[in-house]
Design goal:
Elements (H helix, E strand, L loop, with lengths): L72 H9 L5 H4 L4 H25 L6 H19 L5 H25 L3 H21 L7 H26 L9 H31 L6 H28 L3
Length: 308
């Protein structure tokens, strides 16, 4: 199942083609399920997986060199007695890799936001809109690009951070202190979802994913209709009043849902031995989810604070 987060929907990525919800589970995929296409799957239902049973089968990372001579008995004994190779030695992704890449991405985002905060004049949305449009284009390129590109991911983080910094400055001018409130709220949602996922309170199943993605699609469609209506002077009230509060809570809930899918995807990728470079894809996906939550949190707090 695919994520609404487009970065994980590319063929060859470590996540969504294998089913966003299937990571960390032991269930066999149902007929027609994209789990069977998991590029890092195991044996059984994943027999066609290039990273599966035979290390010299179709796995591009484990092919035997052409013309390589068979190992001697002494070489085999030496290999047997040698320490087991860890993820670092084999070039496989680890949780530390994901944490490090995510930290780099978020630091880039925060640094660019700081530049916008201190360099731009108050109430200037022009730079924010421009940076957002460019960030959207870069994000789409990353999402549809078959190979992972760390420079593009960091470029996206910088552009998105600049846009968020400009918007946050405007909001903070109107509602002093809203920036730190939105940051703390986003961090709280992240921590709560991580705890809920690790303790098993939330289990990412195919049904869970289907329902969540359906709600997300409806939510985005509703916001698009609201945006078009706003262009013609109509106000559907989706970003103000009681209805705006409900919409904001749904938006934050969807962001939390995206995080749970990201956690499951990362867990599965590590378990199935994804290449180390895929940690950048994981960092990009987490950044998208956190940006979504932050923006929705900013809007919700603005509605709740009103004219105070």
């Amino acid at each position: 199942m695919r994520s609404s987060n487009p970065v994980f929907s590319r063929e060859g990525s470590f996540t969504r083609e294998s089913g966003y919800a299937g990571f960390g589970t032991t269930q066999a995929p149902q007929a027609g399920s994209p789990y069977a296409a998991n590029p890092y799957g195991q044996s059984g239902p994943y027999d066609n997986n290039p990273y599966g049973n035979n290390p010299y089968g179709n796995n591009p990372y484990a092919q035997q060199a052409p013309g390589q001579q068979p190992l001697t008995d002494d070489q085999l004994v030496e290999m047997y007695r040698a320490p087991s190779a860890g993820p670092l030695a084999t070039g496989r992704m680890t949780l530390d890799d994901v944490v490090a890449r995510t930290a780099m991405t978020l630091l880039t985002l925060v640094a660019a936001g700081g530049v916008a905060w201190f360099a731009l004049p108050d109430r200037n949305f022009g730079f924010a809109v421009g940076a957002s449009l460019i960030a959207f284009v870069v994000g789409m390129v990353i999402s549809f690009k078959r190979s992972v590109s760390p420079p593009l991911i960091l470029l996206y983080a910088g552009l998105e951070g600049f846009a968020l910094g400009a918007v946050t400055k405007v909001f903070n001018t109107i509602w002093p202190g809203i920036a730190i409130q939105a940051v703390l709220g986003t961090a709280a949602v992240f921590a709560a979802m991580l705890i809920a996922y690790k303790t098993g309170r939330i289990r990412v199943t195919p049904r869970y994913t289907r329902i969540g993605i359906a709600i997300a699609m409806g939510f985005v469609l509703l916001l698009l209709v609201n945006m078009v209506a706003g262009m013609f002077g109509a106000d559907m009230g989706l970003r103000s009043g009681p209805l705006g509060i409900v919409v904001g809570l749904i938006g934050i809930g969807l962001g939390a849902f995206f995080l749970s899918l990201d956690f499951a995807a990362i867990e599965e990728a590590i378990a199935q031995g994804a290449p180390q470079k895929e940690a950048w894809r994981a960092a990009f996906g987490l950044t998208l989810s956190l940006v979504w939550i932050y923006v929705e949190m900013l809007r919700l707090i603005a509605i709740l604070r009103g004219d105070d």
